[in-house]
């Protein structure tokens, strides 16, 4: 399952190209950490990847998938609970009070990863766009290298993409 973020959303969240990768990575880790509350799984049953510009979506994209070959349906459950799951993820990031980096705001068991992501300002920025994770159809090229502006939906729901 995946979600994308448009240039308009990035601009509203004040996420610039310099912190985009970190913001997406923080949102990825935080969402993986929160999914067990919605999909009855262990965080190690889930994998993820985030990219500032995916060649298929032409947008910044976060993927969350079953972490074992053949899977167990966790990504599908994530898709079906996307609104509640990603809203909880956003709230977890937004409520963190750290200012020097900690593993709690992005739910990462790796302190090194957490510190790197937190000190970049990425979690704060990602909290403002994490649950704007719809499948969007956009027009034109934007300053982030992908599609700019655009509107929601237009019947463009793809298999596995989060839709709100």
UniProtKB/TrEMBL annotation:
<protein>
    <recommendedName>
        <fullName>MrfA-like Zn-binding domain-containing protein</fullName>
    </recommendedName>
</protein>
<dbReference type="GO" id="GO:0036297">
    <property type="term" value="P:interstrand cross-link repair"/>
</dbReference>
<dbReference type="GO" id="GO:0006289">
    <property type="term" value="P:nucleotide-excision repair"/>
</dbReference>
<dbReference type="Pfam" id="PF09369">
    <property type="entry name" value="MZB"/>
</dbReference>
<dbReference type="GO" id="GO:0043138">
    <property type="term" value="F:3'-5' DNA helicase activity"/>
</dbReference>
<dbReference type="InterPro" id="IPR018973">
    <property type="entry name" value="MZB"/>
</dbReference>
<feature type="compositionally biased region" description="Gly residues">
    <location>
        <begin position="145"/>
        <end position="164"/>
    </location>
</feature>
<feature type="region of interest" description="Disordered">
    <location>
        <begin position="141"/>
        <end position="164"/>
    </location>
</feature>
<feature type="domain" description="MrfA-like Zn-binding">
    <location>
        <begin position="27"/>
        <end position="106"/>
    </location>
</feature>
């Amino acid at each position: 399952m995946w979600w994308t973020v448009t240039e308009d959303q990035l601009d509203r969240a004040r996420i610039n190209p310099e912190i985009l990768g970190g913001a997406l990575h923080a949102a990825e880790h935080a969402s993986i950490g929160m999914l067990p509350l919605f999909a009855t799984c262990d965080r190690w049953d889930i994998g993820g990847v985030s990219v500032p510009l995916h060649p298929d979506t032409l947008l910044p994209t976060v993927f969350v998938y079953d972490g074992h070959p053949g899977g167990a349906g966790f990504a599908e459950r994530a898709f079906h609970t996307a609104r509640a799951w990603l809203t909880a993820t956003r709230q977890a990031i937004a409520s963190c009070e750290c200012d020097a980096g900690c593993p709690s705001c992005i739910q990462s068991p790796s302190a090194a990863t957490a510190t790197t992501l937190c000190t970049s300002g990425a979690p704060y920025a990602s909290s403002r766009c994490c649950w704007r994770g719809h499948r969007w159809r956009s027009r034109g090229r934007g300053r982030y290298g992908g599609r700019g502006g655009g509107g929601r939906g237009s019947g463009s729901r793809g298999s596995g993409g989060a839709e709100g």
